[in-house]
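Quick one:
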Amino acid sequence: MTSPKYSHHFSINNIPYGIASSQTHPQQAATRLHNTVILLGTLQQAGFFSKIPSLPENIFSKETLNEYSALPKDVHEAVRTHLQSTLADLSNVPDDAKADISTVQLHLPVAISGFTDFSNSLNHVQNAGRAILNDPSPPPGFFHFPIAYTGRASTIVVSGTPITRPKGHFYDRTNPTPKTVIYGPCRALDYEVELGVIVGRGFKGDGEGVSAKEAEEHVFGWVIVNDWSARDIQGLEMIPLGPLNGKSFGTTISPWIITTEALTPYKVASPEPRVQLAPHLQESKEGNYDIRLTVEILHSASGNASSTCELEQEENGKIASTTAQCPASSLFWTHRQMLAHVTSVGADLRTGDLLATGTVSGEDVGQHGCLLESTKGGKEKVIMADGSERVYLLDGDEVRITAVLGGDTEGVGFGECIGEIRAAR
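Output:
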């Protein structure tokens, strides 16, 4: 079930979309106000949306949000306005259409047809370059267009799903001489703090593509993304191609899709371009959002740590150690430029496509969005709250990413994106 601790993320200013079920309700579309889940399929069957004739019948009773997300923006706006005016007083909602967040199961909100993972953070690119190659120089195309690779959509899972440590080929660094490739469980498992946009209305590739200034019409909303990474497997297979098994074993997304309408009040300026951009990539000055992400490792207490008894423990008895706080406002490329770049070659957009930003990292220590950066490629250790150490993730560790905008009471947040590492099969 779902943690109730993020109530303040879901004020009346948010109105996210997810897919929920319970012992008494089948899987259907839902929204959330504080810790109350409102079951939209049940509401629609009771005639709640009868004043919105453009809303298709029983669309909220579907097991994914794909059909709803593909509707025109004016329909989404009408539904949002109606929900905000009604949910100001929850007594307006029938009891059988409400459930406490702790009693529902949240599911993958959309059927994801395609996954593209970008690398939009200049700070991440430079930090990773220093860690791996001792060279912070960005790739030659970085300032000209948002660079990316195509991931595996079939292994994207919803928050709370365990992640099994992958097996693969990598260099045996415990016996570096002679240099030997071995096969076995990953020894350098990492997280990546990211955001992702879900495509709503599709776009038929026609050779022209969609421009950054037009791309918002195709964005349904945002999720947190943890693009789990096996650094040792990834490092070997990226010579000479991009990542495959080092990434494709699992990607976790948060269950609530946060709409563009909810994020709009928190627009901030994007970094200035370094070169003259192609026309389709030219973007408005306020292209980013002031989204603040926090990543924690939830882990068992160290047996020899004297401070363990003083540390606040989670419900499962684990300790939460914050390893980074990452500002999305620093991303060099915007989500609209991501969509524009993908379609510029003639490719289409499909409803449910996920386009992720890549690792979000700030300029300062404590703002690194992955352990590769925090440990300088495994050369240094990260100190946990109880004094224990990490270089990369251990079996039993849980990684929790949260994201929030605005204040603590009327702000907009994403809730959590969490996954526990299970031992290799």
